[in-house]
Structures are given as C-alpha cells and as structure tokens.
Amino acid sequence: MEQLAIIKANTTHIPVIRDLTMEVWPQTYTPIIGADQVAYMLGLFYTPEALEQQMSELNHQFIIGYRQGAPVSFASYSAIEPSVFKLHKLYILPATQGSGAGRGMVDHIVQQLPAPCLLRLNVNIHNHQARAFYKRYGFCHLRDEDINIGGGYFMNDHVLQLEVSGK
Fold this sequence. Notes:
The chain is an alpha+beta fold. It has a single domain, classed as 3-Layer(aba) Sandwich (Aminopeptidase). Helix content is about 35%, strand content about 40%. The chain contains five helices and seven strands, in the order E-H-H-H-E-E-E-H-E-H-E-E. The protein has helices at about 15-35, 35-45, 50-55, 100-110, 130-135, and strands at about 5-10, 60-65, 70-80, 85-90, 115-125, 140-150, 155-165. The radius of gyration is 15 Å and the shape is globular. The mean pLDDT is about 95.
C-alpha cells in the first residue's frame, strides 16, 4: 500500500474536508444514530463556517491524508489543558479503512505532541469498528459521557485516553 502523505490543513482545505465528511459520515453514522441526527450534526459541526471557526477561533489543527494524490482521511486535534490534547476528528474513507491510514494519521498526531502528555478522544459507544481501532492503538477507556448537542439529540460516547510518553 502506498505511503500516506499528510499535510497540515487550513481554511483553503475546507472543501476537501467537507467532501471527505460527506463520504464518511452518512455511511458510518446513519446506522448508529439515524439520518435525522446525522443531518443535524453535519449542520452543527461541518458547515464551512463551523470548520473555519474550529480552525481559526478554537485552534483545532486539521490534517489531511493523501494516497496517490487523492484525499483519503482527515483529522483534527488541539490542546484542551496543559499536557492534555484532544483528538476531535479522525475520519477515513470507507474504502481506505483497514489500510493503515488511521494508524498513520494518529502516528502523525502523536509525533506532533510534546511528551509526556495525554491524548483523549470521544467515540460513540455503538461505533464498534472505531472503538476496536483505538483499543488496538493503545487507547484506554477513561469514562462515559452523554453530551447534549441541542435539537433533542445527545452524543453517547466513551472517552478514551492514550498516554504519549515519547518520540
């Protein structure tokens, strides 16, 4: 499999991030949370304005993974407190899942972080494929949380954590 080329994204990459989102989200989340909540969350977190705010105001660092010149994955992360970072997003095109792209993206992020630190993420409690990936990577269960996102919807998540000890 061709090496994953990872670039640091900025607001000019929002259309690429949105295209990847629209290929991943409906297929991944409709069976878990239903089409109405998927549409609500896409409108909440993935509009051009929301993505620009995440990049510009919330200081989320976005990266995009490419294979053979085509985008296949994206992720975002940021510091949430001293020595604690959050992996906000990690999405891989369905046809690319299982190819090492997810591991490559997380490896890249971990290499950017100061050690020692913690890397946390939220994963839907019913997203078994993602939960298994993170467990294989070495993330441990920290707690569960239900997050009210408005519109009568909740995100029912496991919070997972990885101890980053060194390069």
